[in-house]
Amino acid sequence: MASSCNRQYFLNPRLSLRLVTLLWTVTWTVSATERAADIYLRGEVGGNVTFHCPVDKTRTVTFFYFQIQDEFVNGYYRTKDIVRSVWENTRVDRDETAVHMYGLNISHSGKYECIIQYVDSPRINEAFIELSVTANYSKPTVTTFCDGENLSCLVTCSSHGGYPKAKMIWNGPMSENTTNHMLTIVNSSEVPNPVTMMFNSSSTANFNCSNGQQTGLSCSVGDVTSDVFSVCAPKVPPVVSSVIVGFACVVPFVLLLGLLLYCKCKKRHRGEATLNGKTVNGGDEEAIGLSAI
User: Fold this and answer.
1) Is the pLDDT of residue 175 over 80?
2) Do the domain assignments include residue 109?
3) Are residues 170 and 80 in the same domain?
4) Taking the model in full, what pTM does it have?
5) SS3 for 88-104, per residue?
């Protein structure tokens, strides 16, 4: 019975025509748009990239649209000019069906769509190119502050202008078992710039100096690492220069010698003055006596 119904259904010309029409419509709808495999592209802030849209170079292109979501970026028609505004930092290469983009920033990240139609077919050809824009973090700067007794030190590593978001990492000869004894993370932050969308990353750690000086330390974020540094250096008493010590010993001796010479010279001058006085008086007395005779 079932086979008889199926046979009658397919032998009915009107039903068969409807079925063929339905199948053709579905097939045409599916094949009217052809999509290529997604392409992934990377760029850096301030740099340039080129989107190479897949194209059959043996065929003539009727039009080429390049857009992100529903926003037109650039493109061309074979026989007329594009009337829509294009991005100022883009340029179309018709020979390569490519789009050059300059002066990248974080906001340019996203999934772009290539839309191509050829002269010999109404079919729309699509391809998606996903762009990821990154930015290198600056080399981390290290600032250290130790307490007066040098029992602990606060060290801050900071970096700016990076993307995507990344944490500051502490590096050194510390093992997982000793890390908690040697340092404690006080604060870590990854703050985005509202204008550039890039991140500033920093971390502050408190180092316990009870185990002595710690060397070979550094911090890193993304692909950049700070200079190697050390903390908890032993407190060295001030060293008195040998020159200062020698000078301190010589000065009193020189002063004493000068005082002795001064006293000796003064005594000599006093004796000469006394002797000269007696001679003069004696001479006067003789002169007076002669004049009296």
Assistant:
1) no
2) yes
3) no
4) 0.66
5) CCEEEECCCCEEEECCC
Using an 8 Å Cβ cutoff, are 64 and 75 in contact? yes
- Helix, strand or coil for residue 283? helix
Please state, in angstroms and rounded to a whole number, the distance separating the CA atoms of residues 112 and 169: 34
What is the spatial distance between Cα 151 and Cα 131, in angstroms, rounded to a whole number?
50
In whole angstroms, what is the distance from residue 94 CA to residue 88 CA?
Answer: 17
Give the pair of three-digit tokens for residue 141.
Answer: 């700067």
d(CA 132, CA 97): 21
Residue 152, Cβ density class (10 Å: 0-12 exposed, 13-18 middle, ≥19 buried): middle
Measured at the CA of 60, the angle between CA 57 and CA 61, to 5 degrees, comes to 95
What is the structure's pLDDT at 7?
Answer: 39
CATH of the domain at 89: 2.60.40.10
Position 286 pLDDT exceeds 60: no
- The DSSP output letter for 139 is P
Average pLDDT of span 98-122:
97
Residues 128, 154, single domain; the answer is: no
Q: How far apart are CA 95 and CA 286, in angstroms?
A: 137
Give the pair of three-digit tokens for residue 86.
Answer: 């294009």
Split into its structural domains, the chain has a count of: 2
